[in-house]
Amino acid sequence: MKPTALIYSSHDRCQYLHREFIIQRALESWDNKTLMHLPMSQNTQANQKWDYDNFRWYYSQFAQWGLEYWPFYWSDNLSRQDVDLFFHSLWNAQVVLLGGGNTSLGLARYKALGQMYYGQPWLFKKILHERQERGLLTVGFSAGADQLGELLAGSLNGVPDPYGFGLARNIMTTLHHEQGREGQVWHLAANFPHCLVFGLPNDSGIAVDQGLLPSGNFWQVIWFVIDNSWDIPQHAWHIKTRRGEKIHHFYNDGRHWCFNGGDMLVRIMSPDGHLQDNTIITSQGHIIDYWSQGPSEYHNIEHILAAN
């Protein structure tokens, strides 16, 4: 079991998150060490290039181990051949990273790519889910992080299309979380009780895998990632994890919980997505019932999945 979606917030290319959770996934393939970077949420060609360049210097360090990496830029003049190549690359790349910018703009463009020549605005989302079923990794940074969840963080602010791609089903995130912004996380949790809402500080993320059980129930495993590796003194104020910040979560009844790096959460949902059996597994190996916050009856992940 490996993550098939990574949603994260960072100030720059912190080593632990980027190397262990992104680059290593591409390099572990013996014949497909590929990474596709999509900066389409940026409004102009120049900004798309800027988004890619913010990562390219980091990717380039791993070319000596066979990493192949490339961007694909949105253009109003994409040909059928361009779009065919885009979807071929999206299907095949070992890792796909959705970059930053404007969340709604990026969603509209990803849908337009499917509509443009195939009449299928859902094609991009469909391929992302097929990638997940095949065990491939899709990463979301900044706008891309918002897009990979169930609903956008701006869903209460009248965004025209509030739905993300759902690679992290029934999950919402807020990015660049810091002390004083807990109310934003609680507000979303109270208004979207079927979702779990997490406040992600720089540098942190959640890694997710999910699928169907033979019973018809839906399973999901969430790994919580805290990265303290970025150590440039003048950037210290931006790296909230280096200042002790954890990943914040509010229950829809107002209770609060902080997740540490190495913690896990195992969720079981009924086919309609609402009945949930949630279990926390801490980095120290303690197994806790999410609802009661007391000891769980389960022994490990395998026990949880088998029982449901």
Could you walk me through the main structural features you see in this protein, from its secondary elements to its overall organization?
- The protein is α/β, with parallel strands linked by helices.
- Helices cover 30% and strands 24% of the residues.
- The chain contains eight helices and 14 strands.
- It has helices at 15-27, 45-59, 80-92, 103-118, 123-133, 143-148, 182-191, 301-307; strands at residues 5-9, 34-38, 68-71, 95-98, 137-141, 171-175, 196-200, 204-212, 218-226, 247-250, 256-259, 264-269, 276-281, 287-289.
- The strands form two sheets. Strands 3-2-4-5-1-8-9-12-13-14 form a ten-stranded mixed sheet, with helices on both faces. A four-stranded mixed sheet has the order 6-7-10-11.
- A hairpin with a 5-residue loop joins strand 13 and strand 14.
- Helix 3 (80-92) packs parallel to helix 5.
- The longest helix has 16 residues, at 103-118.
- The two termini are 17 Å apart.
- The model has no long low-confidence stretch (mean pLDDT 94).
